[in-house]
């Protein structure tokens, strides 16, 4: 593994660095690295942390390689989201905070083992692919209590919320806020029994808000900025009358804060679970075993920064 975060490294990633054999973890965030991303990394590399740099240009179709985690948040990457070469090993893909444009390619639905997908804070447009329902948003081989999340917020996505999202049974967090979505919130989404965070604020949604299942736990902040939505928890009646607002209970507010804190810490559990799955698949009779404890220790510190 190579850990060189929070320094003043400049320039491009050297070709000699990305070709290192047995480099499981490449950790270069919070530097001043720039230029294009390499088209390929070592086939041994499973975790790539390249966030908070100045990388520019487009994302190569082949950048995933054999990676299980790819973090490119907060760079200057532009162009379309690539039609990634099929990678059934990728569990965590974070592209937030770039300048990506165009629509979300349907080929992303082929990354069926994705557990955390963050495309927020870009310039994406078009509709949300209904085939996202093909993604399980759950770890395929290990039992875990980790986080399964889809974040498409702060883009220019239009169209309706796909009814097929109700098939993402293990989804715990869905953020579609700050887009141009219209139509109703599909009542089928109430089937998402694990959904703990739901945010569709600041869109053009209309109609009555579903209240069954987990939707009975979401407050008005999930829906603010959609003046045509009606029913609880807003103060707008669907027959044109105004519902009487009641003061929020202090105890309930404190409970909400606690729930959110627990929610974010569960992201750490997801990352640790992915790490264990990766390393458990490696032979302890090989050179991998020599890096086991050092990688685990470094990774636990790394995931804590991912919720900041």
UniProtKB/TrEMBL annotation:
GO terms for cellular component: membrane. It comes from the Eukaryota. Its main location: membrane. SUPFAM superfamilies: L domain-like (SSF52058). Keywords: Leucine-rich repeat, Membrane, Phosphoprotein, Receptor, Repeat, Signal, Transmembrane, Transmembrane helix. It is found in: Membrane. InterPro entries: Leu-rich_rpt (IPR001611), LRR_dom_sf (IPR032675), RLP_Defense_Trigger (IPR051502). The keyword Transport does not apply. The chain crosses the membrane at residues 263-284. Belongs to the RLP family. This is Uncharacterized protein. It comes from Brassica carinata (Ethiopian mustard).
